[in-house]
């Protein structure tokens, strides 16, 4: 019996707005306020639609049975997406071309960057990469010196919890 081989994408969705003064796209808080991940099926349907648009109906039907969302976090905008190993390159390139996400209103779209943080063969490796990404962002927050002493202590406690989780998973 041969097992079904998968690839797991760790994707970070970064809401953006266009700064007219500079002409550069910046990640800002206003975009985050309008941004809501919604259901995992919404994300999967967007990826399916992108694959169909870029590679046609044949490739979309090839990836359709294996494409699924395993994890989606509203707090961090991280998504773990699973697809078949033999179809991961078209999925990857289609994700690269995505640049919007449905907004809170029915007809609105929020511009965002779909950043593929990593691709792995197991969901465990994707989870570990997501945990390390959280830890890194918290360390950057501490280095920015924009926190009060109480907030700094809370963030340091969260980092200790993350390091404990990493040790438990790796053991």
List keywords for this structure.
171 residues; alpha+beta; five-stranded antiparallel beta sheet; two-stranded antiparallel sheet; 7 strands
Write the layout of secondary structure elements.
Layout: E1 6-15, E2 17-19, E3 24-26, H1 29-34, H2 40-63, E4 68-72, E5 78-84, H3 88-97, E6 100-102, E7 109-120, H4 123-143, H5 149-170
Antiparallel strand pairs: 1-5, 1-7, 2-3, 4-5, 6-7
Helix pairs in contact: 2-3, 4-5
Tell me what you see in this structure.
With 171 residues, the protein is of the alpha+beta class. It has 5 helices and 7 strands. The chain has helices at residues 29-34, 40-63, 88-97, 123-143, 149-170; strands at residues 6-15, 17-19, 24-26, 68-72, 78-84, 100-102, 109-120. The strands form 2 sheets. Strands 4-5-1-7-6 form a 5-stranded antiparallel beta sheet, sandwiched between helices. It has a two-stranded antiparallel ribbon with strand order 2-3. Strand 6 and strand 7 form a beta hairpin. It is flat. The two termini are 29 Å apart.
What is the helix tally? 5
Average pLDDT metric: 82
| Estimated structural class | alpha+beta
Terminal CA distance: 29 Å
Low-confidence stretches: 27-31
Strand order, sheet with most strands: 4-5-1-7-6
Kindly state the percentage of residues in helix: 40-55%
Shape: flat
Largest sheet: 5 strands, antiparallel
Radius of gyration: 18 Å
What percentage of amino acids are in beta strands?
Answer: 25-35%
Based on DSSP secondary structure assignment, what is the total number of beta strands? 7
Order of helices and strands: EEEHHEEHEEHH
């Amino acid at each position: 019996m041969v097992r079904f081989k998968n690839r797991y994408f760790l994707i970070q969705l970064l809401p953006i707005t266009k700064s007219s003064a500079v002409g550069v796209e910046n990640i800002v808080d206003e975009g985050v306020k309008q941004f809501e991940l919604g259901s995992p099926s919404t994300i999967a349907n967007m990826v399916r639609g992108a694959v169909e648009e870029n590679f046609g109906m044949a490739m979309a039907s090839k990836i359709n049975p294996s494409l699924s969302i395993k994890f989606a976090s509203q707090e961090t905008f991280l998504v773990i997406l699973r697809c078949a190993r033999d179809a991961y390159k078209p999925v990857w390139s289609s994700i690269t071309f995505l640049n919007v996400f449905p907004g809170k209103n029915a007809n609105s779209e929020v511009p965002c960057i779909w950043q593929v943080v990593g691709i792995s063969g197991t969901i465990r490796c994707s989870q570990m990469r997501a945990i390390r990404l959280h830890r890194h962002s918290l360390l950057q927050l501490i280095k920015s010196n924009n926190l009060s002493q109480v907030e700094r202590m809370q963030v340091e406690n969260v980092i200790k919890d993350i390091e404990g989780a990493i040790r438990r998973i790796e053991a």
